[in-house]
Amino acid sequence: MSFTASATLARLEREGPLRLTALAAAEGVTQPSMTQLVQRLERQGLACRVADPGDGRVTLVAVTDAGRAELAERRRLREARLADLLATLPADDQQALAQALRTAWPLVRRMLEADPGPSSGRAPRDETGSTR
Fold it and tell me: InterPro entries per the record (predicted)?
């Protein structure tokens, strides 16, 4: 699964169903690229289109239960890999890393909360995550 596909599913899980145009803008990709990505996610059973409860003329993209399960498994595998890597560090390095994370995490959280999104001057990405 591409980074963009994974990020798109994670956004849908976090924010709920979104219009395709809003999803493309939020992920910083073109609308045609997002359309192709959503079609691929639909074929894989990871996303689906649903009617907007507020406007029946509008279609939203939503993550499916299978998509949530895929995200959970990817997170579990990533956490297990990280735990294995951290276990190879000497105890002093583990403690130093823990202290650095305690110091850096509040800054990272503030940066993420202040992220202006795709209008920050980033070049649009295609469905593979490459800039164009």
Answer: HTH-type_Bedaq_tolerance, HTH_MarR-typ, WH-like_DNA-bd_sf, WH_DNA-bd_sf
**125: three-class secondary structure by DSSP:** strand
What are the boundaries of each domain within the chain? 3-88
pLDDT in tens, 14-60: 999 999 999 999 999 999 999 999 999 999 999 999 998 888 889 99
- CA of residue 28 relative to chain centroid, distance: 12
Phi and psi based region of residue 87 (left: phi greater than 0; alpha: psi -120 to 50; beta: remaining): alpha
Q: For the whole model, what pTM was predicted?
A: 0.71
Task: Please say whether the beta carbons of 60 and 19 come within 8 A.
Answer: yes
Give the E-state strand segments of 27-108 in sequence order.
47-52, 55-63
